Automatic annotation (TrEMBL):
EC number(s) given by UniProt: 2.7.7.7
The organism of origin for this protein: Sphingobium indicum BiD32
Record gene name: dnaQ
Alphabetically ordered keywords of this record: DNA replication, DNA-directed DNA polymerase, Exonuclease, Hydrolase, Magnesium, Manganese, Metal-binding, Nuclease, Nucleotidyltransferase, Transferase
Gene3D superfamilies: Ribonuclease H-like superfamily/Ribonuclease H
The name this protein goes by in its record: DNA polymerase III subunit epsilon
């Protein structure tokens, strides 16, 4: 049996744009895909950033310092998160941003970084497919007819759910999940689009030459023909 292809779509919400300047991750949402179909398994958590929430960031995701003050620290739930992620490829929109915050939080609690070779960036995929177009999550959902009417503010799990639909469309459409592309496998390599390039399984070359038995049957068949024209043309004049 061929091993199922497992991928994790994830999104984060933060206090700002730069973990090096003290910004922290306050929410993460993850969706499990098995063979490009949501399995129904998710991971979602809020974290106390141990700092204030800038008004500009709160306006984006609606998470206030008051709401987050009784939430657990990232370190207290890191084992549950890592158990969910396993070693699967991780798909995010503008993935370097999310990887940057995830790895910053992991370092703060003494854990190893998540390898960048696991990264699949849907912005990079979209730029390849639609050069010159808008590549925001909203713009791409509109392009692919994905309903986002319920997205009033950013939310990690909601955005991961939208991104899961978008990722399926960007990488071949819904028919992948219906089993029409079961030949495709994950290639465990990085690159411009990150891990997760699609490759075809190697098959032995087809043999087109006639076998000895087939050649013998052909000679016997030719012998039954009555004055084949090619033999007449071969006679000396």
């Amino acid at each position: 049996m061929k091993r199922a292809m497992r991928e994790i779509i994830f999104d984060t919400e933060t206090t700002g744009f730069d973990p090096a300047s003290g910004d922290r991750m306050v929410e993460i949402g993850c969706i499990e895909l098995i063979n490009r179909v949501p399995s129904g398994r998710t991971f979602h958590a809020y974290y106390n950033p141990q700092r204030d929430m800038p008004a500009a960031a709160e306006a984006v995701h609606g998470l206030s310092s008051i709401f987050l003050k009784d939430k657990p620290l990232f370190a207290s739930g890191v084992d549950d998160l890592l158990a969910f992620l396993e070693d699967s490829p991780l798909v995010a929109h503008n993935a370097r941003f999310d990887f940057g915050f995830l790895n910053h939080e992991l370092r703060l609690c003494g854990r190893a970084d998540v390898s960048m070779t696991r990264m699949i960036d849907t912005v990079a995929i979209a730029r390849t497919l639609h050069p010159g177009a808008k590549h925001s999550l909203d713009a791409l959902c509109t392009r692919y007819g994905i309903d986002r009417s319920h997205r009033i503010k950013h939310g990690a799990l909601l955005d991961a759910e939208l991104l899961a639909q978008l990722y399926i469309e960007l990488t071949g459409g819904r028919q992948i999940g219906l089993g029409l592309a079961q030949e495709e496998e994950k290639a465990g390599v990085g690159g411009e689009l990150g891990a997760g390039a699609m490759v075809r399984p190697v098959r032995p070359a087809r043999v087109f030459a006639a076998s000895a038995a087939e050649l013998e049957r052909h000679v016997r068949f030719i012998a039954t023909l009555d004055k084949p024209i090619w033999l007449e043309e071969a006679q000396p004049g």
